[in-house]
Amino acid sequence: MKNFNFHNLTLVNPCDLDDECYIRSVHASDILDAARCVDSFEDATIPIDFLIATSSIDTASEKKHLRRPVYLHEFSKEIFEMEGSIGLVFGREDFGLYNEEIAACDLMVKIPSSTSYPALNLSHAVGIVLYTLYLTNQYSEEERRTLDSTEKRHLFQAFSALLESIDYPEHKKEKTKVMFKRLMGRSLPSKWEYHTLMGVIKTSADRLNKKK
Fold first, then answer.
1. Same domain, yes or no, for 98 and 199?
2. DSSP letter string over 85-143?
């Protein structure tokens, strides 16, 4: 939880939070100190506006709604648009969540996994879900800036000039330019990466031209 900036932990009928728990928590003992311990699932969910169940057991039938999942990568894009308090509900290590607990939640999220062995260990499932949400939120907070049309045009012109500087074979130029354009399209370079790349390309072309 602390690795991915989550802090509010509620435990339903937990074991004793003994010395071993604190040893394993290392530098996240403050999560345990602040944890809310309750006796039942109902008590845990009282202050939550929107409940998200998690389970590896799902159904593809449109007529069975209880375990029709939203997949994690889809859910991670929508959760930050929700208002109010949101609770991520993870089940028991051995049995997961019961049907009645899933029914009490607003939707069910599933981590895509192999059909030959879809169930994950509880700690792994929690880690994957929180990591995915953290990563999605980081990108939305940073508002990663990619290249506009003018910057792309200048980059491709600089690359074209570099090909001229190295006397690149004429019959290969167009295909190479298209390859570079597709490469940049897949990589979605940031503004900083753009300026660095432009500097390398233009400096290389200038030095090559001076040697001619």
1. no
2. -EEEE--BTTTB--HHHHHTSSEEEE----TTS----HHHHHHHHHHHHHHHHHHHHHT
- Res 27 pLDDT > 60: yes
Determine if the pTM surpasses 0.70.
no
Q: Residue 142: pLDDT above 60? A: no
> Running DSSP on this structure, what letter comes out for residue 54?
E
- pLDDT score of 191 more than 90: no
* Three-class DSSP category at 53: strand
Write down which residue in 142, 164, 182 finishes a domain. Answer: 142
Count of structural domains within the chain: 2
> Bigger pLDDT: 182 or 39?
39
> Among 125, 142, 159, where does a domain finish?
142
Rounded to whole angstroms, the Cα distance separating 3 from 15 reads 23
CA–CA gap between residue 194 and residue 155 (Å, rounded): 8
| Domain membership of residue 180 as a residue range | 149-211
Check whether residue 138 and residue 175 sit in a common domain: no
- Cα distance between residue 35 and residue 13, in whole Å: 12
Q: Do 96 and 35 belong to one domain?
A: yes
